[in-house]
Amino acid sequence: MVPAPGALQQCVGISPPVLVDQPDGCKPAEEVSTNCVPGIFDALVRPASLMMDSECQHVLHGGSMRNISHGIHTVEIDTLLPEFLVFIPLGCPGFQRIHAMKKFAYCKVVLATSLVWVLLDMFLLLYFSECNKCDEKKERGLPAGDVPEPIQKPHEGPGEMGKPVVIPKEEQEKMKEMFKINQFNLMASEMIALNRSLPDVRLEGCKTKVYADNLPTTSVVIVFHNEAWSTLLRTVHSVINRSPRHMLEEIVLVDDASERDFLKRPLESYVKKLKVPVHVIRMEQRSGLIRARLKGAAASKGQVITFLDAHCECTVGWLEPLLARIKADRRTVVCPIIDVISDDTFEYMAGSDMTYGGFNWKLNFRWYPVPQREMDRRKGDRTLPVRTPTMAGGLFSIDRDYFQEIGTYDAGMDIWGGENLEISFRVGVTKVDYGDISSRLGLRRKLQCKPFSWYLENVYPDSQIPRHYFSLGEIRNVETNQCLDNMARKENEKVGIFNCHGMGGNQVFSYTANKEIRTDDLCLDVSKLNGPVTMLKCHHLKGNQLWEYDPVKLTLLHVNSNQCLDKATEEDSQVPSIRDCTGSRSQQWLLRNVTLPEIF
C-alpha cells in the first residue's frame, strides 16, 4: 500500500530512537526494523526503481528527509536524482507509525523539487537551441569554433538547387569588403551549405546510359592556395556525394603554401571525418599550380588521375563517363562539360554541350562552336563525346601511366595559363600510329612529334589561326606612328588606333593569303563609304572584308569601296576610317614582317 502524504513513514534501526505513534495492529519498531533496513539501501543504490521486499512495501519521495543513516554510512538524499523510490515498511504487523510530516513542509519539498526540474528543463532547452545554431553555422561552412561534423544530407536553404543568393541591402557594403578576400562573393558562399543540391542538367540520353562496374579507380587531385573554406569543402563534398564509392580511390588536397589558419589543423581535422580518404599534402614553399599538381599526382594511388580546381561543384553522373572513355582507350584525355557558377550570386548555370576548346594566335584558350565535321561524325548523337584539339586545363582525367609516358606537366612552368595548351599539343602530336617505323631514325621508333602546322591541319583544322598569311604583327600608321589596336573590344565594335607598344597583344593583326586583316577570329569590315572600320566574324567571302596592300605605296585599299584606310579623324581620335585614296602619309601603313608572296 502507498501512504498518503500525511502518513509518510520511515523504517529505521538506529539510535537515537524516534517518537512514533502506535497504530492498531503494529508491533514495536525495534522488532522489525532490521528487516527493513536492507530495502532502504537497496533502493538508494538503484534510484527510480520499485522493489518488493519479502514482507514490506517501501516508498520514499526524494527530498523528504535530509539523510538516511545506517551504522557509519550516510547517504545524502540531495545528491541523488530529484525523483526516486526507496522502500519503507508500511502497515507491517507490529510496526510503529512515525510522526507525519506537516503538510506545509511537504508542499515546500514538492515546490523545491518542481523548481529544480523547471530550471533543468530551461537549461537543456537553451543548450540544445544554441547547439542547433552551432550546427547550422557548421553546415553553412563557417570555419570558426569546433571542427564541424561532415554533412551527409542536403537541406533547405540559400543556393539550394543552384539558385542565386540575394544579399540584403543592409549587408551590401560588408559583402563588397568580403568580395576582395577571394575575388568572389564570399558572403553568399558562406550562406550556402557545403553539400548543396544541384539540378540534373544532363541530356535525357545521358541519364539512361549504363556504365560497367569495373571502371578504373581515380584519385582526385585538388590544389589550393588561401582558398575559402566554403568553396574548398563544397568541392570536396560534391566529389564524395556524387561519385560511386568503388570508383573514388581518394581525394588529395595539395596546399600550395596557404597562410590562413583554418586551412591548417582545422582542415586536417575536418577531412579525417569524411567517409572517403582525404589526404592533405603541404608544399614547403609557394610553388605554383603545375608543381603542386605534380606532387599531388605523385602521391596519388588511383589508376586514373582527375585534376579539379578548388572552387567547383560536381553534378550527378560526372565521373562515370570520364572513366569509361579511359577504360576504352587509356590514351584518351577526357574533360567534362564545364558549367558556370556565378562569382556574384553563386547561381549554377548549365554550360553548352555544343562548344569545344580551341585557342587564338596569342595562345589564349577559347571556346568555339563544335564544327560541322564533328557533328557529322557523331551522326547527331549529342551523348557521344566531342573530339577537341585543346582542353581548358582546370578539370580533366588522364590514365596514370599515360600521364607519365607523355612527360606529365612541364615542371619548369612557374605560372598557370599555358600548361593546358602545352599538354594538349603534346597529346595531339604524339598520339599517332605510324605502323612499321623500323626504317626511321632511332628517335622515331615509338611516337614522333610532327610540326605544329601538321597539328593545325590534322588535329585542329577548324582553327581560326591563319596558316597562310603575308604579315603577322603590328600595323603602324606612317604619319601618327600609332598602331591598329582591337582595344579588347568584341564583335560588331569598332577597331581602334593607339600608341604602338611593341608588346603584341591587342596590336597583333594578320594580313592573310585571303587578303583579310584579322585579329583573332574577327576581320576588319567596312559597310559604307567614308565609314568607320568595324570588327566582324570572318566569313571568308571577301566582300567588305577584302583588302589589297600595296608594298610600294604602303596603302591598304578597301576593294569594295575603292577607298583607302586612313588615320583617325578629329571627330573620333581613336577610330580609323576609310577615305578617298590621296597617297598622303595618313594613308600609309607599315605591316610588320610583311613578305610577298605569302608566307607558309
Automatic annotation (TrEMBL):
Cofactor(s) needed, names only, are: Mn(2+)
What family name appears in the similarity comment?
A: Belongs to the glycosyltransferase 2 family. GalNAc-T subfamily.
Keywords, A to Z, come to: Disulfide bond, Glycoprotein, Glycosyltransferase, Golgi apparatus, Lectin, Manganese, Membrane, Metal-binding, Secreted, Signal-anchor, Transferase, Transmembrane, Transmembrane helix
UniProt EC number: 2.4.1.-
| Residues covered by region (Disordered) | 142-164
Pathway participation: Protein modification; protein glycosylation
Chain ranges of the Ricin B lectin domain: 467-592
One GO BP:
protein O-linked glycosylation
Per UniProt, subcellular location reads as: Golgi apparatus membrane; Golgi apparatus, Golgi stack membrane; Secreted
> Which InterPro entries does the UniProt record give?
GalNAc-T (IPR045885), Glyco_trans_2-like (IPR001173), Nucleotide-diphossugar_trans (IPR029044), Ricin_B-like_lectins (IPR035992), Ricin_B_lectin (IPR000772)
Does the UniProt entry include the keyword Cell wall biogenesis/degradation? no
Q: What does this protein do?
A: Catalyzes the initial reaction in O-linked oligosaccharide biosynthesis, the transfer of an N-acetyl-D-galactosamine residue to a serine or threonine residue on the protein receptor. Has a broad spectrum of substrates such as apomucin-, MUC5AC-, MUC1- and MUC2-derived peptides.
Native source species: Hirundo rustica rustica
Query: What Pfam families does the database record attribute to this sequence?
Result: Glycos_transf_2 (PF00535), Ricin_B_lectin (PF00652)
**Which cellular component terms (GO) are annotated to the entry?**
extracellular region; Golgi cisterna membrane; Golgi membrane
Q: What is this protein called?
A: Polypeptide N-acetylgalactosaminyltransferase
List the membrane topology term(s): Single-pass type II membrane protein
Q: What is its main location?
A: Golgi
